[in-house]
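Cross-posted from the bioinformatics board.
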Amino acid sequence: MSVQERKERERAVRERLIVATARELAEQQGWDAVTTRRLAERIEYSQPVLYSHFRGKREIIGAVALQGATEMAAAVRAATAAVDGPRERVAALARAYLDFAARNPAVYDAIFQLDGGLAYAQEDTPEPLKDAFAALLECLGEVAGDGVAPGLFTETFWACLHGLATLTRAGRLPPEYIEPRVELLVDRLAVV
Amino acid sequence: MSVQERKERERAVRERLIVATARELAEQQGWDAVTTRRLAERIEYSQPVLYSHFRGKREIIGAVALQGATEMAAAVRAATAAVDGPRERVAALARAYLDFAARNPAVYDAIFQLDGGLAYAQEDTPEPLKDAFAALLECLGEVAGDGVAPGLFTETFWACLHGLATLTRAGRLPPEYIEPRVELLVDRLAVV
DNA sequence: CTCTAATGTCTAGCGGTGCTAGGGTCGAAT
DNA sequence: ATTCGACCCTAGCACCGCTAGACATTAGAG
């Protein structure tokens, strides 16, 4: 029995190695550079090994996305936990979100831009994704204002942050003035 | 002289055919399906002909993006021109924007998601892109409110719309409730 | 301890991609 | 009529995601 357990353990280690390597490579050189050949070479196994862990490249992206979503939820909670006052808490959330996107562009893409084969906004949505939304909801639900559903407010606010994050990173928006844009969003959207 | 002119005319026609075909194919089957081989086949020329018009696939995407930006600017202006009152004008703009994105997903991607090799938010930005932003600015600048620069306000509002458009289309947001989200955005962000 | 069977991995290859070199054809100008 | 140059196509490169089948290596039975 112990032999089988050891093998499973080793397989799990290797699977984590694949995900970590894919993420690293994506952050270093972009997702285009994450080819199955290069990835296989970096983990020092042949290509087919990747397919014994994942159905294909898409699922690898999905695995990175789930890992990233967990981290993002933690980052948002950490940034908002110690802040007093709903207005400042929302501002802290917005900064933490945009900061995460700027510091982990490839991971952010995996979560929100690329096709990782994940279900979104459904009941079979993976837990990390639901939890990331929940982390936003916990903070943003407080400032939805009367007559506005917290979920709807959270979705809308989130969409605004997402727009800022993606347009900034894609060079569609000048990268300075991030802070005043955040201020504008928070001041106008959040009802304190 | 006339012969040369005719040839130039024919070249221009063919170039438009390439762009139109690429766009059509992208809207029908997604940008992934727009390969140089398929595109060449559809225009009934061989692949190298594409490269006598464009440096590569990226530039073809860029050409579709420019065409789309022009149309989008026109759509926004048309939707807002006949509307009275700044608040309703902004709401009309938002709906027109999201409607354009929903009706022309591939074109929207070409403009805002994909790499078409275009410069954004710089002085050498192509005119159609500048004009599309100007179309937004004309309407949104009115409702920036005191102490907020019209440009900054427009960028931020636009980012919100972009976030809604992309998240909705990527299945990250449930597609119903588009209207209440727009109402929320307009009511809170626009100062009338 | 040996042999068999199964597990795991690798090599090699398929059909596809974006892109390009080089040869050939056809029309225009002399 | 002939030359010459512009134009386009065939064929091929290196790479992609993915997989079939050969090959070790190891586990477990006798």
